[in-house]
Amino acid sequence: MTLRYLTAGESHGPGLVAIAEGFPAGLTVAFEAVDRDLRRRQKGYGRGGRMKIETDQAQFLAGLRGGVTTGAPIALVVWNKDHENWKELVSPYARGGRKFTQVRPGHADLAGALKYDLDDARDVLERASARSTATIVALGALAKALLGRFGIQVSSRVVAIGPRARLADAPPDGAQKLAIEASDLHVDDEAVAAEWRALIDAEKARGGSIGGAFDVYAEGLPIGLGSHVHPDRRLDSRLVGALCGIQAIRAAEVGDGTQVGRPGYEFHDPIHYDPARGFHRPSNRAGGLEGGMTDGMPLRVRAYMKPIPTMLHPLDTVDLATREATQARYERSDVCAVPAAAIVGEAVVAWELANAFLEKFGGDAIADVEKAVEAYAARIR
Ligand SMILES: Cc1cc2nc3c(=O)[nH]c(=O)nc-3n(C[C@H](O)[C@H](O)[C@H](O)COP(=O)(O)O)c2cc1C
Ligand SMILES: C=C(O[C@@H]1CC(C(=O)O)=C[C@@H](OP(=O)(O)O)[C@H]1O)C(=O)O
């Protein structure tokens, strides 16, 4: 492991912190790019009241001087504005409010309370909440700064909301990227977005929720990140694991990976070579990964997000304190958060790619990494 991080923080506590280690010295980090990704994560049609309260920004505490990494651990914090309303309820210094015992199906509430011997599921849900993805996105922005330094760009697009899919098999081009950024559903087709808004509205009207899927892409990757030699060094296993590590992601797919009904001739990508382009493929069904390594084609991974579990018209459950039948507790909730999850998806993919990149080319200083990248490119031409 070259890059590593830890995060801490509760959804309604004072703030969320992250410490990252392993970035080479001499990397310029644009703070605005970090905050831009934090803003992107807060957007999206179907989000609930919380996002009107927060305006996430990363405050850096260590590891950079004048916007440039020093090689020391990087520390940052994202403050929770909503904590002002929870000071007496959720804090290292106070614990108050009615106990949360009407455990919600689809959440960590039940298993977490039993496993950790807690009589208040609040102690579980505060950390299980996807609020922590704000720190993940800030860390991902650091990884993107490293990748960007070497010409690698990470992007994403929502490809399904509920039953209505709009699949694509290549990364968005420049114009499509602009359209995606302008869209409240993180898609480059306004007609599809209108259909998706109607689906979200219908679920909201009946007190329900809706899920979907998104693709994450990376362009400009060298051949050979990751490794075939052990399962835990395979980049496909690491990317799928990282995507399923995001709250509410239930499955992830590499390239056309689930299309196993296709015959082999329609599943694999022939290899071509010419001196100008080097090794390349006429198709990219593998999604840029073969044998657990990048194959030089754009990376394409898809993640599937379940419908948000907290619903205005709640499901049946059992009260943790009395063991009697009741209904799941509702405070407030998103109805759909697939566009936000796509930004988190970019972050976790960027992190895994940056880690694999530094495993292959790593050095303590950016200049060392540059030399390793150049030497490798010359060798494999
Ligand atoms: C960006 C994002 C926002 C989310 N917002 C909510 C929400 O408002 N309400 C909710 O019940 N779940 C929300 N979730 C999902 C829950 O955090 C998640 O389903 C829960 O912690 C249980 O984890 P699991 O689904 O991975 O099993 C959100 C997830 C993400 C990625
Ligand atoms: C706070 C965020 O998402 C939250 C994730 C979440 C959950 O259960 O995962 C539940 C909601 O929290 P609250 O109960 O405070 O409204 C979401 O708003 C965020 O994305 O920053």
From TrEMBL:
Pfam families: Chorismate_synt. Keywords: Amino-acid biosynthesis, Aromatic amino acid biosynthesis, FAD, Flavoprotein, FMN, Lyase, NADP. It catalyses: 5-O-(1-carboxyvinyl)-3-phosphoshikimate = chorismate + phosphate. FMN binds at R127, A128, S129, Q247, A248, G291, K306, P307, I308, P309, T310, R332. NADP(+) binds at R41, R47. Pathway: Metabolic intermediate biosynthesis; chorismate biosynthesis; chorismate from D-erythrose 4-phosphate and phosphoenolpyruvate: step 7/7. Its cofactor is FMNH2. Signal peptide: none annotated. The keyword Amino-acid biosynthesis applies. Its EC number is 4.2.3.5. Reduced FMN (FMNH(2)). InterPro entries: Chorismate_synth, Chorismate_synth_AroC_sf, Chorismate_synthase_CS. SUPFAM superfamilies: Chorismate synthase, AroC (SSF103263). CDD domains: Chorismate_synthase (cd07304). It is an enzyme of class 4 (lyase). This reaction introduces a second double bond into the aromatic ring system. Belongs to the chorismate synthase family. Homotetramer. This is Chorismate synthase. It comes from Anaeromyxobacter oryzae.
